[in-house]
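Q: What structure does this chain adopt?
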Amino acid sequence: MSRAMRRQGPLVNKPPAKQPAFKPSGQRPPTQKVSAEAVAEAKKKRTFAQRIPIIGSPLQDIINELKKVTWPSREEVTRLTGVVLVVTIAIGIALGGVDFFFNWLVDNTLLR
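A:
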């Protein structure tokens, strides 16, 4: 036995685990039996996305979320596309001008 174990003193026994506080009383409620017709009817009502075994549920969730999206009108899309193009061209021209200026500055001061 090591010195550290001896310093701790005698080993203490743990108390027994507590019993669960909740004990169900009485019998369980009977399970509901579903008829074969009800199962067949439920299968008929499934959508195509729900019939796919692995990705059916996530695909159905995506479809439901996309139905909630507020999509822009054609006019909004056209206008915002024009704004993006104008801003992109303006920034391109500005960066090109800065590049041209620094190129001229280096050529006329450092390389002379």
